[in-house]
Amino acid sequence: MRRISRITVAGAATASLALALSACGGTSTSAGSTDSKGDKGLAIAYDVGGKGDQSFNDAAFAGLEEAKKEFGYETDDVEPTEGETDADKAQRLSSLAKQGYNPVIGVGYAYAPAVKEVAAKFPDTTFGIVDDSTVEADNVADLVFSEEEASYLAGVAAAKSTKTNVVGFVGGVDIPLIHKFQAGFEQGVKDTDAKVKVLSQYLTQTAEEGGFSSPDKGKTAAEGQIEKKADVVYAAAGLSGQGVIEAAAANKVWAIGVDSDQYKQGALAKYKDSILTSAMKDVAKAVYNLAKSVEDGKPETGIVRGDLKTGEVGLSNSNPKFADNTELQDAVKTAKEKIISGEIKVKSS
Fold first, then answer.
1. Distance (Å, whole) CA 30 – CA 298
2. What PANTHER family does the database record attribute to this sequence (predicted)?
């Protein structure tokens, strides 16, 4: 059981014992409730779009499910609300910590202010935030990824697959995080074939305008690029990316998915033959690893980065038309090796 494993570790370290006894909320008044809450484990709070986006949030949920299965403890996952504030996010995280969940993870950079605030109030609970490296607290793990590296490989695949010498990039929101996807993709395309033109577009300036949660916006953007002869379109747009994939399928061009292996997503099954590959980041693994570190009594903290070298970003091989294309596979493999060795420096903006 969860509490027993924590106390065993604590036998060698008084600090770990304190962690186990106060995991329900970080106050002296919560220590007495540890017995009733000691089996509560990982909880996640979703980003814009929520569960069912077939991408970023669903990857986090997969990590939660893996932890739940392995450790046999109670978990929780909470949806965002329309137009919510930082205070709403902080209240959500506080509620999870008070209930005894540990760790508590905010999925997405928008949780940074809330994680920073709540982590200070619950020093004995480990918090995680996906896609942000700014919180810098003793009990917070900043789970970040080198998305530009996977996007570079997506650019190689796009340049090798285009017949029109025009490809597209659709970003959900015009922010530094998504600039990493764009920069890597454009560099990968140009390094592979300088003649290929990249059309790049952002759906909104802010997340509140629906850039990550509006498939209709993604579909319209992709259709515009396809009209300009793009025959491979890469989307880094959360739920909005489903619209990009739909447009690609309708117009018989290639789509490149993001974050999760979108070829395998059930909700996208009817479009899967149009999904060439996906630029993946293993959010599931990062979420699971943080939960395991807490379970083992050695919580991860600070910046925890996943990249090509660690295997936590990369391209999916699920579509046989991608996996069985020797020329394409060789080009991607060569680029990957050069990035890992440092011969290729991938831009992040």
1. 22
2. ABC TRANSPORTER GUANOSINE-BINDING PROTEIN NUPN (PTHR34296:SF2), TRANSCRIPTIONAL ACTIVATOR PROTEIN MED (PTHR34296)
